[in-house]
Design brief:
It catalyses: 5-amino-6-(5-phospho-D-ribosylamino)uracil + H2O = 5,6-diaminouracil + D-ribose 5-phosphate; 2,5-diamino-6-hydroxy-4-(5-phosphoribosylamino)-pyrimidine + H2O = 2,5,6-triamino-4-hydroxypyrimidine + D-ribose 5-phosphate. InterPro entries: NADAR (IPR012816), YbiA-like_sf (IPR037238). With 186 residues, this protein is an alpha/beta fold. It contains 6 helices and 9 strands; from the N terminus they run ββββαααααβββαββ. The chain has a single domain, classed as Tetracycline Repressor, domain 2. The structure holds the ligand Nc1nc(O)c(N)c(N[C@@H]2O[C@H](COP(=O)(O)O)[C@@H](O)[C@H]2O)n1. The ligand Nc1nc(O)c(N)c(N[C@@H]2O[C@H](COP(=O)(O)O)[C@@H](O)[C@H]2O)n1 binds next to α1, α3 and β5. The site of ligand LIKH6CAM has 11 residues, from α1, α3 and β5.
Length: 186
């Protein structure tokens, strides 16, 4: 669990706020995977919970909004890959890396606009991906904020040499295509 003093971090929550582009729910950062457009990083992340079920993946990525994509995903929870809790951080890292790779000008601008401040996803109740309000500070694992900070450093260190690779885990499959073998989305 981490503590973030309010005066030394930037937060995001609503996709319409100043740093809203950092949210996985933010529109305007589409991702193309092997001829299939995925509207948000959230939809890609949710779809990758179901590598063995392309039909569920399609329902998720064709959802009208990322919130609905997440809701549909939750509905099919019992079909989630069994190792999901062990691989979810690597999958999330991959999703935001691809988001940056394919939206390099726009997303890098939002990311770099955070300077060196801590990035925190402020939530009401999700102390895993974000952090909750504790008065003068936020408290949570803030996994998404931390992955975004890592990504910011990686990109800032080598803006012209920003390369990514698929996660080093089994079964990263999207609509029947193994993303570790077919790399044309990179
Ligand atoms: N719908 C929603 N409301 C919030 O307040 C949130 N903080 C989030 N978080 C995002 O949901 C994703 C994680 O989903 P799982 O719980 O692992 O299915 C991730 O993108 C969080 O940033 N969502």
């Amino acid at each position: 669990m981490r503590i973030y003093k309010k005066d030394s971090c930037i937060t995001f929550r609503s996709t319409k706020s100043d740093f809203g582009g950092l949210s996985n729910m933010a529109p305007g950062y589409p991702i193309k995977i092997n001829d299939n457009w995925v509207k948000t990083a959230e939809a890609l992340y949710q779809a990758l919970k179901y590598p063995y079920n392309p039909e569920i993946q399609k329902r998720i990525i064709f959802a009208n909004s990322p919130i609905v994509a997440k809701r549909i995903s939750r509905y099919y929870e019992k079909f989630e890959r069994p190792d999901w809790l062990n691989v979810r951080y690597k999958i999330m890292k991959f999703c935001i890396e691809v988001k940056l790779k394919q939206n390099i000008n726009t997303f890098s601008k939002v990311l770099l606009s955070t300077d060196n401040l801590a990035i925190v996803e402020y939530t009401n109740d999700d102390k895993v991906w974000g952090a909750i309000d504790k008065g003068e500070y936020y408290e949570g694992i803030n996994a998404l904020g931390r992955l975004l900070m890592e990504l910011r450093e990686k990109y800032r260190d080598a803006p012209n040499g920003y390369f990514i690779s698929p996660p080093n885990i089994a079964n990263v499959t999207f609509l029947g295509i193994d993303l570790k073998e077919n790399l044309n989305y990179l």
